[in-house]
Write a structure and sequence with these properties.
There is one protein chain. This protein is an alpha/beta fold and 314 residues long. It contains 9 helices and 13 strands. The strands form 3 sheets. The chain has a 5-stranded mixed beta sheet, with helices on both faces. Strands 11-10-9-12-13 form a 5-stranded mixed beta sheet, with helices on one face. Strands 5-6-7 form a 3-stranded antiparallel beta sheet, covered by helices on one side. It starts with a strand and ends with a helix.
Length: 314
């Protein structure tokens, strides 16, 4: 059976799969990234994991993987196949595509940014399926974004497209590690809500999920913290939809797990802010933590389609 290798590399763990031509997950596995052993060890872990996946495909499906797709965090030069920088993993300018290609005996390899790759999957086979233009916004430790256009995801001229978390929504506000003050992710990420709720309830162990439960129970302090986060998020999203005019706005990440506790007030807050703009559908992400892996598989299949067309035209 023809298949590809898909790898989603995170700060602490790696998710991997062998993916069939229809997007089906034929085999799944997870491993620790091992970042405590240093960036060289992380790269070797990725290469070793890919080689083991290739061997599994040979044993169980009678052939080697036709290609591989890899999603990594940080700054990614997808065109050159270079993982340029990741603070979490400690690497700089790693030629990951070439290294993987050699380890996989010359199989073609596609390299992508983790959020854009997850967005590709959500847009093509997840919550945004059928939408020609979408914006995928995962609310996790930080806030990122993926701009979907015509079945692909826009990387931008320098690979920074979609960084909605660094839209300034509160000028002069909380300092952000990016160097600005008042960035969206300092107010509306899961970690920002966790910090605000921990301070409000005087419990350093409290997190965003606890805050959402307290909101559902009617706790006035929780309602205040939640409303401030939703208002900031709505301000950032309206700026984004004014610029991008997406048909579908997909919200994912840990904060989206609050369900309608988030989505009902968020839809209302966005609706109140729009004037001339067209209101997009605001929907929860559908693929959960498999999005990155599925997206990496899509990158690999897209690469094969491009390769096959080039061979035919030649």
């Amino acid at each position: 059976m023809r298949h590809v290798i898909a790898l989603d590399v995170g700060g602490t763990g790696m998710k991997a799969a062998l993916v069939g031509a229809g997007g089906e997950l034929l085999y799944q596995a997870r491993r620790a990234t091992g970042r405590e052993r240093g960036p060289d060890a992380v790269v070797e872990s990725i290469l070793g994991f890919a080689a083991d996946l290739r061997a599994h495909g040979e044993r169980h499906f009678g052939r080697s993987a036709a290609a591989a797709g890899v999603a990594v965090p940080g700054i990614v030069d997808a065109e050159r196949g270079v993982a340029a920088y990741s603070a979490n993993l400690g690497w700089r300018d790693v030629p990951l595509r070439d290294l993987l290609g050699r380890r996989l005996d010359g199989a073609p390899v596609a390299l992508g940014h983790d959020v854009r790759t997850g967005g590709l999957a959500e847009g093509r086979i997840g919550a945004g399926k059928g939408a020609d233009r979408f914006l995928f916004v995962p609310l996790g430790t930080g806030i990122a974004g993926a701009i979907g256009i015509g079945g692909g995801v826009e990387a931008g001229a320098h690979g920074f497209a979609g960084e909605i978390g660094h839209i300034v929504v509160r000028p002069g506000g909380t300092p952000c590690p990016c160097g600005q003050r008042g960035c969206l992710e300092r107010y509306a990420s899961a970690s920002a809500v966790s910090q605000a709720w921990a301070a409000a309830c005087d419990d350093p162990e409290a997190d965003a999920a606890d805050c959402a439960r307290a909101v559902a129970a009617g706790d006035p302090n929780a309602v205040r913290v939640w409303r401030e986060a939703v208002d900031a998020l709505a301000d950032g999203l309206v700026t984004a939809l004014t610029l991008l005019d997406p048909r579908t706005l997909i919200i994912g990440g840990g904060l989206a797990e609050a369900g309608e506790t988030l989505f009902t007030p968020l839809r209302d807050a966005v609706r109140r802010r729009v004037t001339f703009q067209k209101l997009p559908s605001i929907v929860p992400a559908a693929l959960g933590d498999t999005a990155g892996c599925l997206g990496a598989g899509l990158l690999a299949w897209d690469l094969l389609v491009t390769t096959d067309r080039s061979e035919v035209s030649a």
